[in-house]
Amino acid sequence: MSAIDLVGVRKQFGETQVVRGVDLAVPSGAFLSLLGPSGCGKTTLLRMLAGLETPSEGEIRIDGAVVNAVPPGARDIAMVFQSYALYPQMTVAQNIAYPLRKRGVPKGERAGRVAAVAEMLQLGPLLERKPRQLSGGQQQRVALGRALVREPRIFLLDEPLSNLDATLRSHMRAELIELHRRIGRTMVYVTHDQLEAMTMSTHIAVIDGGVVQQFGTPQQVYRRPVNRMVAGFIGTPAMAFVEGRVGEGGALTLAGTRVATVDAAPGATPVIGIRAEDVRLAEIGVPARVGLVEPIGHETLVRLHCDAGIVTARLPGDTAVQPGEQVHFTADAGRLHLFDPIGGERLTDPYQGNERDHG
Ligand SMILES: Nc1ncnc2c1ncn2[C@@H]1O[C@H](COP(=O)(O)OP(=O)(O)OP(=O)(O)O)[C@@H](O)[C@H]1O
Ligand SMILES: [Mg+2]
Predict the structure, then answer these.
(1) Tens digits of per-residue pLDDT, 285-313?
(2) How far is the CA of 247 from the centre of ligand 1 (A)?
(3) Nearest atom (ligand 1) to Cα of 210
(4) Residue ID of nearest Cα to ligand 1 atom 25
(5) Same-domain check for residues 312 and 248
(6) What is the per-residue pLDDT across 166-224, written as a single tens digit (0 to 9) for each?
(7) Are 218 and 89 in the same domain?
(8) Residue 10 near residue 57, CB atoms below 8 Å
(9) Given phi > 0 = left and psi -120 to 50 = alpha, else beta, which region is 267?
(10) Alpha-carbon torsion 134, 188, 62, 9, what sign?
(11) Distance in Å, CA 12 to ligand 1 centroid
């Protein structure tokens, strides 16, 4: 059963359509990331789940019951806001304990639970401070603590790690994954960081322009992006897009070199999407000139300029190539992604020969 269902949900502020018809079924116990660029409607969606905004149209259901008219306090949801609104007059300990106090949890038990959360979030030494005496990252951790201290049915987290430095962020990422595993509650996690979404989630909804572009497991959205937007948003370095041409007999060429055989009419010009890890240098292949070379230790990212565009290759760290050098590259036909040159949607059926690796 799904924990949360969004059915035809729309939201407009005045004339502005922000959420334009979202259908989502979030499985019970899922860690769902709402992933998308700034302004795409992630926070608005989350606020509707929390009951802080009312949908202009459509239905929100929690455990099967329509909650459109249920106030936030009656939804058994904890939310961590993007702007971690802490109570300024309360200490860190009091902020974290607040949801427990409101629910009448006895003082002794409160102290124990606050201490456990503070330890997990490395807030122990800060418990007696006021929010204004904390850095942004520390305040963010307190806000997280306040949500974690009671175990509600559903957690809503709006970019809760965005103010943390890289080390703490990766530590917190691991803690949240572990927490989710331990308590098994449904979590909806907003982020514009695709790496965060890929590493933490059981499910990802990629959102753009107020619409869910794709919903699936991290592997599904990575391996089989439904359109160029999703393909370009997921994966680092970003997928390269170059122009392909279909010739006689379905020969698909890239910069004049045959790279696959496809089931399409001569003259078609699909966009070919290539991930950096699928590119190899070879004796025979697409001719290209080496551009930027970025050694990052165990591997080297190399930009290859060919007549059809620029392709990035992720090569072994000891690859010795120099900018300006002429090389050839190849990529497995089965790992190419093909998109409609106009609408950008994935071309699946006419190109089945290319799909064998992507099931
Ligand atoms: N109360 C409001 N009144 C008018 N417009 C709003 C309101 N709240 C949000 N918007 C607009 O709706 C759009 C989506 O906002 P939202 O905060 O949901 O985006 P987001 O995906 O969370 O972005 P970010 O990653 O920057 O936080 C934005 O263009 C924003 O300006
Ligand atoms: Mg937001």
Answers:
(1) 999 999 999 999 999 999 999 999 999 99
(2) 46
(3) 14
(4) 38
(5) yes
(6) 888 888 898 889 889 988 899 999 999 999 999 999 999 999 999 999 999 999 999 99
(7) yes
(8) yes
(9) left
(10) positive
(11) 10
